[in-house]
Specification:
47% of the residues lie in helices and 15% in strands. By secondary structure, it is an alpha/beta fold. The longest helix has 16 residues. The chain is globular.
Length: 244
């Protein structure tokens, strides 16, 4: 018997849907009944934007809304929880969730899982490129985990981050949040350009550190440089925890 996986959706909505798909894709299932029990609750209107909070543009910590949603998922039996949002793993947002986690439940830390995966899957790699929201960029949320694994991080220049990376996610005309299916050519092109910039800065692997970036960069590499899909790694970790 598998434990029920609980997904806090709505950060953004397509990121939650994408995680559901990746859980199904990575489950060794021969029939409907072989798939894992998963509950997702997507209440985007209740969760303030993570980057806006971290940048001081809104006052309400989205972590408290995440707590409320986790508790609702717990009521339907969920015991293993995943947050398909890199920015939500910044300690200021994540800690309230950890503090209020229902007794006996597990919250899978996506950032920690990514660092562990890279350490084992890519021995000898040292420089890790990071592409994400302004919240991920400013907080350097990946640095603690990657540094502990003996790895260095490479980020876009600040001007590139604010002009190309964050707008590719957030712009109301062409960003992934506004144009998700299919992703706009401009968002896809800008993110590909930034990935190549990171390569020129010494990156040996690039973490797609926003769960919506894989909607644009659908391949597993660029110029033979591997992409690390944080959401895909979270999916596999949730399966591992749910099935023991």
């Amino acid at each position: 018997m598998s434990k029920i996986i609980g997904i806090v959706g709505g950060m953004g909505t397509y990121a939650g849907i994408d995680l559901l798909k990746k859980i199904a894709d990575n489950t060794n299932a021969m029939s409907d009944r072989d798939h894992l029990p998963v509950a997702m609750l997507s209440l985007p209107g209740e969760i303030t934007d993570r980057s806006e909070y971290l940048l001081g543009e809104v006052d309400e910590n989205p972590g408290f809304a995440i707590v409320r949603i986790v508790r609702q998922l717990s009521k339907v039996g969920a015991e293993i929880f995943g947050l398909p949002c890199n920015t939500a793993h910044v300690p200021e947002i994540l800690q309230p969730v950890i503090d209020k986690l229902p007794e006996g439940s597990i919250l899978v830390n996506m950032i920690s899982e990514v660092a562990t995966y890279i350490s084992y899957a890519y021995p000898g790699i040292n420089n890790i490129g990071i592409m994400g929201t302004n919240g991920v960029y400013r907080s350097r949320v990946y640095d603690e985990y990657l540094t502990a694994a003996g790895l260095s991080t490479v980020y876009p220049d600040e001007e590139v981050q604010y002009r190309m990376v964050h707008p590719a996610i957030y712009d109301m005309e062409y960003g992934i949040k506004a144009v998700s299916e299919p992703v706009s050519m401009r968002a896809r092109s800008d993110l590909m350009s930034v990935a190549r910039m990171l390569i020129t800065k010494g990156a040996q692997i690039i973490i797609l550190g926003c769960t919506e970036i894989p909607l644009a960069l659908t391949g597993d590499n660029i110029d033979d440089m591997p992409f690390i899909d944080a959401g895909g790694i979270l999916a596999k970790a949730l399966i591992r925890e749910a099935t023991a």
